[in-house]
Specification:
This protein is an alpha/beta fold. 46% of the residues lie in helices and 14% in strands. The chain is built from eight helices and seven strands, in the order E-H-E-H-E-H-E-H-E-H-E-H-H-H-E. It has helices at residues 23-34, 46-60, 74-83, 107-135, 156-176, 194-207, 211-220, 230-240, and strands at residues 14-17, 38-43, 64-68, 89-92, 138-143, 181-188, 252-255. It has a seven-stranded parallel beta sheet with strand order 3-2-1-4-5-6-7, with helices on both faces. Helix 2 (46-60) links the parallel strand 2 (38-43) and strand 3. Helix 1 (23-34) crosses helix 8 and helix 4 packs parallel to helix 5. The termini are far apart.
Length: 265
């Protein structure tokens, strides 16, 4: 018997996906393409970006544009918005700032973190929301972090900047929902990406253990016993971009394997 798949109701829609050449951003792009969405992909490095775009074209037959630019700059944002001026879907994503301790960070580090993980997605939403409102339909998913709900001490820059974005979304999502525009946040825990490898290397150095030991220790404390897979994360992202979330407004959806232990979220 043929397996049935949920129709997300977004085939033919147009999406901008930031930082999407690899990792969680790429996984979101693949799942949206699987649902029939045409894509504008963005990343700083052109070679992995083009490789991802071609793989998606060949696999799913959707139209894929690419914009090699730093989305955290006004010039990068303008280039992406010019490539797709009428996006139905926006997935905001950007790499997190480096780990450390509070004494490592001065004004320059704080400004960079706030720009990358708070102001950039806010500016993208500010540019795209009016068109979505005019057309009466839109979906925005902001990839933030599980640290918004359960702060990670060595990720203080990320904790603070992403919490600021979360506060902006909490109010804005409720202002635009009546126009058919739905904004939610997707909070990853530990997934098998380059980012987790960087964090594990830092942990291994701090505790004078091997990278393998650091990984085993981190996976062991998760209720599932392992890290998440980007493809599963991408599937949730695609659902949050779908026609089925019209009554789901301003939520923070946590995908962390149950690592954050709370009865009421």
């Amino acid at each position: 018997m043929r397996e049935r798949q949920l129709d997300l109701g977004i085939a033919g829609k147009k999406a901008i996906i930031c930082a999407s050449s690899k990792g969680l951003g790429r996984a979101c792009a693949q799942r949206l393409a699987e649902a029939g969405v045409d894509l504008t992909l963005n990343a700083r490095s052109i070679e992995p970006l083009e490789a991802t775009a071609e793989q998606i074209r060949q696999s799913y037959g959707v139209r894929v544009k690419t914009v090699a630019a730093d989305i955290a700059t006004p010039e990068g944002q303008q280039a992406v918005l010019e490539a797709e001026p009428k996006a139905d879907i926006l997935v905001n994503n950007a790499g997190g700032p480096p780990p450390g301790v509070w004494s490592d960070w001065g004004r320059e580090q704080w400004q960079a973190a706030v720009n990358q993980n708070m102001l950039t997605p806010i500016m993208m939403m500010t540019a795209i929301l009016p068109g979505m409102i005019d057309r009466g339909w839109g979906r925005v998913v902001n990839i933030t972090s599980g640290s918004v709900k359960s702060p990670i001490p060595q990720l203080g820059l990320s904790n603070a900047a992403r919490a600021g974005l979360t506060g902006f979304v909490a109010g804005t999502a409720r202002q635009v929902a009546r126009h058919g525009v739905i904004i939610n946040n997707l909070l990853p825990g530990s997934h098998n990406t380059d980012r987790i490898e960087t964090l594990l290397k830092t942990t291994a150095l701090q505790h004078n253990i091997s990278l393998e030991e650091a990984r085993a220790n981190a996976e062991a404390v998760n209720p599932t016993g392992h890290f998440g897979e980007p493809s599963d994360f991408g599937a949730m992202c695609a659902f949050l971009c779908s026609a089925h979330v019209g009554f789901m407004v301003g939520q923070n959806v946590l995908l962390d394997g149950g690592a954050f232990n709370s009865t009421m979220g």
